[in-house]
């Protein structure tokens, strides 16, 4: 009896254990068979730069919506799960961990600005899912080999590319018009200072006659720029470079208009070309020089116009620079998932993304590339153009050859010890 | 430090005029916000940490009115009145419950108001930045004075701020209502015992403080971008002005605001890397030499 009872008890125990194991395994099995691939996005959805996050989110939703409507990827659909980091790097790291560990996200689209982007980068080093940074423009994120993460990529414009393009364009204008006395007005934080230094480095390289007569550094999110504008009136530069962006740039332009600054000073701006900035400015002066951020007419391709129309219908405003970058990232992810037959392991997806090329209406030529050596995007528009007061707001885009940008980038990497 | 350039600027009429006008432009908006803060503290004895919200609301109300009517006068009135009305509601339903309570409780109520109002603005107006645009009447070339240039809109803005400051001072010091308000600040029990509705007065004074902040926001709307949370940046500088001028002193707020404005304007020429630091250095100096502020009431 006692033996039989023991055997029965053991069977009950084994049966219970098996049932328990099966129950515990169920979510995993269910996850493996799930029709939905969850993609997490830490980004900034509140505060002064919330449009960065809201337009990034809308772009991915638009891209995923189109993919899902077309039948998904082998019958599986893509779902975006976004979290607000409030622009804080510590919060960005926390929500990224939560998205992976608690929300079942198998891929991360990092919609953070640079400060949060580096924090997300380190999380992905620990939890190696596929991560595509879509908004950080700081070059070192992918250029510095010490920061390399095998499953992390950048699908965004990059500071060094813009600096070379800006230097080539600005030096051409300065030589043509004899603009020797330059001043800068950029926000006083890492991006503003680095961006300005890189622009000047290449502008002076191509036109050694350029002389920087003054530099002012208003603090980030300053409400008033009058003291900087009146200083420019005293210094009397012929040209000014500014890395101000967003609402700060809108205030700066409008306040400068009151002093009629721009008829006398040629402005070169890294960020004026973003549609929300252009449309927010009530009196946009003609002839200001700006880097491309996004424009529905450039590159002049039907696919670009279709993206602009589709995004605008969803978001109720024109695409931003962040929007196109996130849209393209979603396209890269979809293509990688197609090639892995839906496998979402970070290493498998990364292997596909290395050197991947996709045809895109947002490419300068035919294709956009995620470069295999440093996991970063090339082939995107880096042109500069001139403002006009009415839509399309920027015209006469002058493209800078990517061959020239890549050559200078290689030299820059050697100088920095990155190559 | 560019002391040579600074000396050159002070010695040159055009530079001097431009930079003094810059100081007044920067200072006068700060004065409006800080005078409201000071008025509320002087009479009610509470620090309105949510004061920046009323600056933001003033700007957004003005923006909405301008979009709807195209009238800058109506926009100014909407900004001032809207902020004042919200201020009265805030005082009656929330702030009045924490008078005399722990400072932390007041801080929490104000912080909650900031978060709620910022979110409401985001829901109603969107998270992206907006700009009202310059009214047609001011879209003119800047006025030349001794070789320096001053935009017409800024002349109007400084004039408005000075006018409002003068009316406020006269109202408090030369009218019966002002006498009652001053009495309320000193002995509210006695004022109540005389049959005056002190709750109404408290709400009115709080509302007036918010009207001043709202007017500043409405005046700023044509030249500064509107974003949810925009009140924070102006609040910090307003606190500096209030501390330098003396908590509760309207003339002190005026003097301090002009000082801060001039510090920023000439600091940008002479100390371009330390302009913000100069403001705090000035505040530190005043706190050491005269802890109650330049024109604040000395405590025994």
TrEMBL record, chain A:
Residues 37-378 form the Leucine-binding protein domain. InterPro entries: BCAA_transport, Leu-bd, Leu_Ile_Val-bd, Peripla_BP_I, TAT_signal. CDD domains: PBP1_As_SBP-like. SUPFAM superfamilies: Periplasmic binding protein-like I. GO terms for biological process: amino acid transport. Gene3D superfamilies: 3.40.50.2300. The keyword ATP-binding does not apply. Pfam families: Peripla_BP_6. It comes from the Bacteria. Keywords: Amino-acid transport, Signal, Transport. Belongs to the leucine-binding protein family. PANTHER family: ABC TRANSPORTER SUBSTRATE-BINDING PROTEIN, LEUCINE-SPECIFIC-BINDING PROTEIN. This is ABC transporter substrate-binding protein. It comes from Teichococcus aestuarii.
UniProtKB/TrEMBL annotation, chain B:
The chain crosses the membrane at residues 6-32, 39-66, 72-91, 103-125, 153-172, 200-219, 239-262, 269-289. GO terms for biological process: amino acid transport. The lineage of its organism: Bacteria, Pseudomonadati, Pseudomonadota, Alphaproteobacteria, Acetobacterales. It comes from Teichococcus aestuarii. One of its GO terms (molecular function) is transmembrane transporter activity. It is a multi-pass membrane protein. Keywords: Amino-acid transport, Cell membrane, Membrane, Transmembrane, Transmembrane helix, Transport. One of its GO terms (cellular component) is plasma membrane. This is Branched-chain amino acid ABC transporter permease. Belongs to the binding-protein-dependent transport system permease family. LivHM subfamily. CDD domains: TM_PBP1_LivH_like. It is found in: Cell membrane. Its main location: membrane.
């Amino acid at each position: 009896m006692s033996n039989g009872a023991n055997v029965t008890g053991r069977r009950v125990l084994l049966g219970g254990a098996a049932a328990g194991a099966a129950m515990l395994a169920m979510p995993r099995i269910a996850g493996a068979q799930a029709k939905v691939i969850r993609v997490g996005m830490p980004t900034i959805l509140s505060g002064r730069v919330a449009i960065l996050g809201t337009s990034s989110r809308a772009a991915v939703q638009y891209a995923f919506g189109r993919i899902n409507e077309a039948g998904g990827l082998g019958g599986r659909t893509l779902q975006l799960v976004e979290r607000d980091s409030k622009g804080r790097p510590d919060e960005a790291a926390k929500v990224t961990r939560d998205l992976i560990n608690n929300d079942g996200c198998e891929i991360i689209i990092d919609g953070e600005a640079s400060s949060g982007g580096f924090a997300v980068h380190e999380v992905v080093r620990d939890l190696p899912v596929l991560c595509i940074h879509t908004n950080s423009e700081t070059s070192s994120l992918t250029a510095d080999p010490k920061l390399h993460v095998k499953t992390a990529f950048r699908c965004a414009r990059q500071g060094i590319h813009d600096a070379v393009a800006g230097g080539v364009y600005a030096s051409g204008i300065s030589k043509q018009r004899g603009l020797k006395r330059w001043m800068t007005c950029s926000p006083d934080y890492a991006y503003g200072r680095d961006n300005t230094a890189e622009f000047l480095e290449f502008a002076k390289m191509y036109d050694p006659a350029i002389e920087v007569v003054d530099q002012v550094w208003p603090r980030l999110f300053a409400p008033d720029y009058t003291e900087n504008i009146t200083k420019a009136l005293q210094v009397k530069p012929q040209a000014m470079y500014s890395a101000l962006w967003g609402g700060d740039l809108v205030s700066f332009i409008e306040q400068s208009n009151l002093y009629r600054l721009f008829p006398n000073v040629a402005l070169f701006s890294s960020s004026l070309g973003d549609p929300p900035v252009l449309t927010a400015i009530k009196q946009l002066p003609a002839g200001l020089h700006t880097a491309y951020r996004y424009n529905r007419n450039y590159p002049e391709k039907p696919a670009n116009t279709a993206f602009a129309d589709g995004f605008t219908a969803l978001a109720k405003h024109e695409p931003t620079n962040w929007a196109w970058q996130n849209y393209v990232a979603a396209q890269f992810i979809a293509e990688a998932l197609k090639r892995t037959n839906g496998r979402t392991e970070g290493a498998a997806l990364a292997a596909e993304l290395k050197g991947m090329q996709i045809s895109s209406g947002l490419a300068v030529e035919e294709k956009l590339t995620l470069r295999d050596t440093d996991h970063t995007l090339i082939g995107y528009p880096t042109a500069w153009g001139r403002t006009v007061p009415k839509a399309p707001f920027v015209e006469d885009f002058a493209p800078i050859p990517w061959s020239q940008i890549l050559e200078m980038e290689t030299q820059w990497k050697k100088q920095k010890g990155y190559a | 430090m560019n002391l040579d350039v600074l000396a050159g600027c002070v010695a040159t009429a055009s530079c001097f005029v431009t930079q003094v006008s810059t100081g007044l432009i920067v200072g006068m908006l700060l004065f409006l916000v800080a005078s409201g803060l000071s008025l509320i503290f002087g009479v009610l004895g509470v620090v309105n940490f949510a004061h920046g919200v009323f600056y933001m609301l003033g700007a957004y109300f003005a923006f909405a009115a301008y979009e709807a009517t195209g009238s800058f006068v109506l926009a100014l009135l909407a900004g001032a009145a809207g902020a004042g009305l919200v201020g009265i509601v805030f005082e009656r339903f929330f702030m009045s419950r924490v008078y005399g309570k722990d400072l932390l409780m007041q801080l929490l109520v104000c912080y909650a108001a900031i978060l709620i109002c910022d979110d409401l603005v985001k829901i109603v107006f969107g998270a992206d930045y907006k700009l009202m645009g310059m009214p047609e009447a001011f879209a003119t070339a800047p006025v030349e004075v001794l070789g320096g240039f001053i935009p017409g809109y800024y002349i109007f803005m400084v004039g408005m701020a000075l006018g409002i400051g003068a009316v406020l001072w006269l109202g408090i010091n030369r009218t019966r209502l002002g006498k009652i308000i001053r009495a309320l600040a000193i002995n509210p029990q006695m004022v109540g015992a005389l049959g005056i509705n002190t709750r109404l007065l408290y709400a009115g004074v709080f509302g007036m403080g918010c009207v001043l902040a709202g007017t500043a926001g409405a005046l700023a709307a044509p030249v500064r971008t509107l974003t949810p949370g925009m009140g924070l940046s102006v609040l910090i500088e307003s606190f500096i002005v209030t501390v330098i001028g003396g908590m509760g002193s309207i003339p002190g707020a005026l003097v301090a605001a002009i000082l801060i404005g001039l510090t920023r304007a000439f600091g940008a020429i002479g100390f371009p890397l330390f302009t913000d630091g100069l403001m705090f250095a000035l505040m530190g100096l005043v706190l050491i030499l005269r802890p109650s502020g330049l024109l604040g009431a000395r405590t025994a």
